[in-house]
Structures are given as C-alpha cells and as structure tokens.
Specification:
The protein contains 19 helices and 7 strands. It is α+β, with helices and mostly antiparallel strands. It has 2 domains: about 220 residues, Endonuclease III, domain 1 (Orthogonal Bundle); about 190 residues, Nucleoside Triphosphate Pyrophosphohydrolase (Alpha-Beta Complex). A hairpin with a 3-residue loop joins β5 and β6. The longest helix is centred in the N-terminal third of the chain and has 21 residues. The radius of gyration is 26 Å and the shape is elongated. It binds iron/sulfur cluster (SF4). The site of iron/sulfur cluster has 15 residues, from α9 and α12.
Length: about 425
C-alpha cells in the first residue's frame, strides 16, 4: 500500500514537471477561452493533433464566439469540418452552442452537471473543459490516458469495459496535484501521445519510468488489455457520376443525404448497396444492376464505363465503392411514372440552393421534374439506403459549387479528380 502511494505521488509530481518543461505549443494551449478549448477537444476526438491544427484555426477564426457558431448556417459549419470525419461532432457542437446561448447566455458553464447536459459532451470532454479551462480537479480519461495508467500501475482490467473507465476515472482523480488540474490532465494526454505510445513506448525517455510497473515487468506491449474490437463490416456499393449535357454541360448530378443518420446532410454522388460482391465487381453484371437499382428509385441512367474504386471507413462499416460514369437514359433522367410526392420517393431536386441549376434542369428537360415514386411500389428492389429514412435532394452542380459544398472525403476526392480534369 505504501509502495503504491509512493508511486502515485511520484507519478503526479514527475509528470507535471515533465509537462511544464516539454509541452507542445498548440493553438488551443495559448488560450483559456473555454469555448476554444471545447472546440479543440471535440476536434481532437479520434483525430490526430497535426490534422486538427489547421481546422481549429480556421474554425475559431470564422466562429470566434459561441454566438457566432450558434448563429451560423449549418452548411458553413459542415464545410469547415469537411475532411475531419465524424460529422455528428460538428452538428452536436453547433446544437450545444445554441443550448449555451439559450441556457447560459453564451458562456460555457463551469459545472459538471450543466456541461454534461449539453449535446455531444461526454464524461471525457466535461473533465477536459473543467480542468483545462477552469482548473477544476476533474479527471479527463480517454484511451490515451487509460493506456498510460494501465501500464504505469500494471492494471490488467479490460479498458473496453465501461466499469474499467469508471475505475480509471477514480484513480486519475486521486492523482491530480492540488491546484494543477489542467496542466496535469494535459500532461497525461501528452505523455500518452508522445512517449507512452500504443506501439513501441519510449521508456528510455519517459519521466515516470523509474516507478512504472509495465516497464519493470516487461509488459509494455501487452498492456493495456483490450478486448478486440470488431473489424468494420465491408459494404459493397456502386456509385455513379452522371455528366450533364446540353444546357447542363459541365455539371454533374449529386445528392444531399437525408437530415438524419450517417453523414447527415452531406453531399455525395448517387450510390447503392450491392448485396453480392461478385455482381459488384463484375464489369458485365454491375452496370445492369446499377441501372436497375437506380431506376427503382426513379433515376434513369445508362452506365458507360468503370471509372475507379475508392473506400470510406467508418468505425463500424467500410464502404467499398466502385464508380461508373453514366449518361441519362433515353427519355429523361428522372422517371415520369410517379404520382406521389417527391419526398416519399426519396428523390427531390434542390429548389433553394443553386437556383440556376434548378432552372437549367427545368428548361432542359421538363419531364425530369416529374419525380418518380417507383421505389415505394418496388420495395423489394434494391434502393438507395440513404433514402430509406428520408428524402435525398438532387442537384446539378458546377465545379465552383462543388468547392462550396460539404462532402465526405471519398466523394470530395473523386469529384476533385473529375473537376481537375483527371479521369476518375
Ligand atoms: S515507462 Fe514506458 S510503459 Fe511505463 S509509462 Fe513510461 S513509456 Fe509507458
């Protein structure tokens, strides 16, 4: 017991000294503004520091206060987040900024319960904001911190279990030196990021090596214990790049995902899931399947050529996408058979954004605006998965409009190649 108490005291003291002497100069460390610290902590979730820096700088320059963020159009927030991934973070951040305006007059509260009631703020972020912005002695335990504590104290509890996190939070709370909550918590994070790394920890330069249990027993590589996460499930998808002709020359057809669910409200190329990987990969079977699946949604295309393959990985899912170029089928791009409201079919042309695109489509092919409802009638047919939970909005866009809209990485890359004149 005495030994553990000694180890804890040594850990807290040495870590704090090391951090104060070695901390990296990061933009969010030059401020005590709770809002800026909050933005940085949300961006840093699942994302590397180097990646976050330019995003953070752009974001706080454009939205320097909670009010600026709360009042911004969501499309602009998503555009500034484009490429960071996990877009629900951006939407929750803005929703929470609006809550801060309504409930706290635009000032982030310094109380645990009030912070925890804000959208998208979990126990780690509560602890990080309270300790870093307000120097309140609250632990901030994430995967990095659990790795350091597991190794230093030789703990074999499975860090994937919620009960372990609770125990780690109690331990981390005990370790906080009086009056130094912010620096100590940042020191723990910094040690995990720079020294006690997931692979090949640098014990030779570690400030707490003398008392570290994992180093003493040679268990650096086997700790922390973590139940294996399931590999992301592959999902096979065919996407289509429809090029405009006549008055729509230079434009491509894109759609906006529904307001709820995966990648909500981001823009993308139309794509469909293919249950059979052999069909997905077959140069003969894929075009027919793609045309049939899209027609079931009311979009009538004729695939022309295979244009490439790309991937998009989520935490639980990996989209494998094969892209085909296409042209509108004879008789018009949108099915004219439908009679029910467009939203019910999952197809809708943008009416607000890009008025020119709308009128161009209208004047070029009036029948294209008679939106189909075949998906409802053919529910057994393959359908847009995105459209199942709500309507997708379709739009013909130019290269300039592309640059202004928010995209998941995979579609931004594909379209950037296309608009830059490379064959995709
Ligand atoms: S001595 Fe090695 S294993 Fe222990 S905390 Fe330091 S870097 Fe991690």
């Amino acid at each position: 017991m005495k030994k553990i108490t000694h180890a804890k005291a040594a850990f807290s003291r040495k870590l704090l000294e090391w951090y104060l002497a070695n901390r990296r100069d990061l933009p969010w460390r030059r401020t005590r503004d709770p809002y800026h610290i909050w933005v940085s902590e949300i961006m840093l979730q699942q994302t590397r520091v180097d990646t976050v820096i330019p995003y953070f700088n752009r974001f706080v320059e454009r939205f320097p206060t909670v009010r600026d963020l709360a009042e911004a159009p969501e499309a602009e927030v998503l555009k500034l987040w484009e490429g960071l991934g996990y877009y629900s973070r951006a939407r929750n951040l803005q929703a929470a900024a609006r809550q801060v305006m309504e409930r706290h007059g635009g000032r982030l509260p310094a109380e645990r319960e009030a912070l925890a009631r804000l959208k998208g703020i979990g126990p780690y972020t509560v602890g990080a904001i309270l300790s870093i912005a307000f120097n309140v002695p609250e632990p901030a335990v994430d995967g990095n911190v659990m790795r350091v504590l597991s190794r230093f104290f030789g703990l074999e509890d499975d860090v994937a279990r919620p009960a372990t996190r609770v125990r780690m939070e109690a331990l981390a709370r005990e370790l906080i030196p009086e009056g130094h909550a912010g620096d100590f918590n940042q020191g723990l994070m910094e040690l995990g990021a720079l020294v006690c790394t997931p692979r090949a920890p640098q014990c030779a330069v570690c400030p707490v090596a003398a008392e570290c249990e994992a180093r003493r027993s040679g268990r650096q590589e086997s700790l922390p214990v973590k139940a294996k996460a399931k590999a992301p499930r592959p999902e096979y998808r065919l996407a289509v790049l429809v090029e405009g002709a006549g008055p729509l020359a230079g434009r491509v057809l894109v759609r906006q995902r529904p307001a709820e669910g995966l990648l909500a409200r981001l823009w993308e190329l139309p794509h469909v899931e293919v249950p059979d990987p052999e069909v997905w990969e077959s140069p003969e079977a894929a075009p027919a399947w793609l045309a049939g699946a899209l027609e079931a949604e009311g979009l009538r295309i004729k695939p022309k050529r295979f244009a490439g393959e790309a991937e998009h990985t989520f935490s639980h899912l990996r989209w494998r996408i094969r892209l085909w170029t296409a042209e509108a089928a004879e008789g018009g791009l949108f099915s004219s058979a439908g009679t029910t409201p467009a939203a019910a079919s999952g197809l809708r042309l943008a009416e607000t954004a890009g008025a020119s695109a709308y009128s161009a489509a209208h004047s070029a092919a009036p029948s294209d605006l008679q939106l189909g409802s075949r998906s409802a009638a053919r529910s057994a047919q393959p359908a847009f998965s995105a459209a199942q939970d709500g309507a997708c909005t379709y739009r013909w866009i130019t290269r300039e409009e592309f640059a202004e809209m928010a995209w998941p990485n995979v579609f931004r890359r594909l379209l950037a190649s296309y608009f830059e004149g490379e064959r995709v």
